[in-house]
């Protein structure tokens, strides 16, 4: 178990708010991608809560084995626990919506929205979207010339209501995002870190600082 100094939570809250305001730009949607074989619920929960604390609006959690998604409730319990531990009395300001694509999403007035994804939400979602488009063509509701980026985006269900990720933090030695939303990360900045195990806030904020300083040239 992690031991925290008395008063550390209050100091952390003040620092996180200040850090979020100090960055030149903050990702609207951050993806947290674990390529390691044994995901840590506690460490992932810390990352999610830090995202909330600095002001990131949308967070996606992904591991290539789908462990987090299969054990969604366990991850959510850990997030709520750490939300209380790390944010304390400020917890109500950082309400998180747990969006689940298998159910109708609740619309909440909250700062951060979280989705837990697995490989079935990546390439399989694209295949399903293509099949749905073909069905619309067969029903003469669409023609094949209608297919463009926006139409395909609207047919994808895994990130319905989410913007494309601005920043992905990839954890682990594998030089790949292993199926994480392949359609959506065409213009995403990807920062690789050795591991999410025992990840420190300093490592997390360093990645945000790198993103804030990065100039996207859009292929120019």
Automatic annotation (TrEMBL):
The protein's enzyme class: transferase
Question: Quick check: keyword Lyase in the entry?
Answer: no
Subcellular compartments: Endoplasmic reticulum membrane
User: Pfam families from the xrefs?
Assistant: Prenyltransf (PF01255)
What family is reported?
Belongs to the UPP synthase family.
The annotated subunit structure for this chain is:
The active dehydrodolichyl diphosphate synthase complex is a heterotetramer composed of a dimer of heterodimer of DHDDS and NUS1. Interacts with NPC2.
Name of the featured protein = Dehydrodolichyl diphosphate synthase complex subunit NUS1
């Amino acid at each position: 178990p992690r031991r925290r100094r008395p008063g550390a939570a209050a100091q952390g809250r003040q620092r996180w708010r200040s850090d979020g305001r100090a960055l030149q730009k903050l990702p609207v949607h951050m993806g947290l991608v674990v390529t390691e074989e044994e995901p840590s619920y506690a460490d992932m929960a810390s990352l999610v809560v830090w995202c909330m604390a600095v002001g990131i609006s949308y967070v996606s959690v992904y591991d290539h084995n789908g462990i987090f998604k299969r054990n969604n409730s366990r991850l959510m319990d850990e997030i709520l626990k750490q939300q209380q531990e790390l944010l304390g009395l400020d917890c109500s300001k950082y309400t998180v919506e747990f969006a689940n694509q298998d159910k109708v999403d609740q619309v909440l007035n909250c700062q951060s929205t979280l989705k837990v994804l697995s490989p079935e939400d990546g390439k399989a979602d694209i295949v399903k979207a293509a099949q749905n488009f073909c069905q619309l063509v067969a029903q003469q509701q669409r023609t094949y010339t209608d297919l463009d980026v926006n139409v395909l985006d609207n047919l994808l269900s895994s990130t319905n209501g989410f913007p494309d990720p601005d920043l992905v933090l990839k954890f682990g030695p594998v030089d790949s995002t292993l199926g994480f939303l392949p359609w959506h990360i065409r213009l995403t900045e990807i920062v690789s870190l050795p591991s999410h195990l025992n990840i420190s806030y300093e490592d997390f904020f360093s990645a945000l600082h790198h993103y804030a300083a990065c100039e996207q040239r859009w292929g120019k």
